[in-house]
Design goal:
There is one protein chain. Helices cover 37% and strands 15% of the residues. It has a 7-stranded parallel sheet with strand order 3-2-1-4-5-6-7, with helices on both faces. Helix 2 links the parallel strand 2 and strand 3.
Length: 247
């Protein structure tokens, strides 16, 4: 990891728009980071283990990349990551939040500790992170927040109570942020994919992996949403790999 400068004025101050991306070592987050880099964005990648960031991202010019420690289960890390991003680039234009975990315990047997952990990582973490970087996004004039929710945040098709509760709450977070910062040019989208071909769905049997949405396709949608002008806002984006009667 390259050490950031002491402050934004002394740093490299990106001319490109700067996106903070969580979950960038695998799945949707990694695909999004790669595509945004290809489209000219400067990236601040918040990851638990900086050594797991693939070489093609780590080796980008320092004016284009920062890799810093961020742990969705550690509420002290958003502030330090935001400070490192400001120090390196002098600006923040987008937050793309892809980090999360599943919770498959059924309602009848799930215990409080499992509920709390999923809620902390899937709901509380993006709330604190968005609160931390929102002042920078307001200053941007065209700030963007993309929160990865789920189709499980729009309807219920199983008894995985922890995951479902957490993702319904992310939808509430997205719509609250959308109202909160609209007048400052911040646009917020809740991305709601169904089955995506990632590590998280590797144990799924009801849908064959070949039928799942590739993470690269989701990344294309993320890039499109955060690059739209202020006059075209997508509040929710439902993406499915199969036909459902309810949506």
């Amino acid at each position: 990891m390259s050490a950031p400068a002491a402050d934004g004025a002394a740093g490299l101050r990106s001319e490109a728009r700067v996106a903070m991306v969580t979950g960038a070592t695998r799945g949707i987050g990694l695909a999004a980071a790669r595509l945004l880099a290809a489209r000219g964005w400067a990236l601040s990648l918040g990851v638990r283990d900086v050594d797991r960031v693939p070489p093609d991202l780590r080796d980008l010019d320092d004016r284009r990349i920062l890799t810093d420690h961020y742990d969705a289960d550690d509420l002290a890390t958003p502030a330090s990551w935001r400070a490192a991003t400001r120090a390196r680039f002098g600006r923040i234009d987008a937050l793309v939040h892809c980090a999360g975990i599943s919770g498959d315990d059924p309602f009848d047997t799930v215990d409080a500790s499992a509920l709390e952990r999923v809620w902390r990582i899937n709901t509380l973490a993006p709330t604190v992170l968005a609160q931390t970087v929102l002042p920078d996004l307001r200053r941007s004039g065209s700030g963007r927040i993309l929160l990865t929710a789920s189709m499980s945040g729009r309807r219920v098709r199983n008894d995985h109570i922890a995951y479902t509760e957490s993702k319904f709450a992310v939808m509430g977070l997205a719509h609250t942020l959308r109202r909160e910062a609209w007048d400052d040019g911040v646009r917020v989208c809740a991305l709601c994919p169904s089955f995506v071909r990632t590590d998280m769905t590797s144990g799924v049997t009801k849908v064959d992996p070949s039928e799942m949405t590739p993470p690269e396709t989701i990344a294309e949608l993320i890039a499109t949403v955060i690059e739209l002008p202020n006059t075209a806002s997508i509040a929710e984006l439902a993406v499915n790999c199969r036909l459902e009667d309810t949506v």
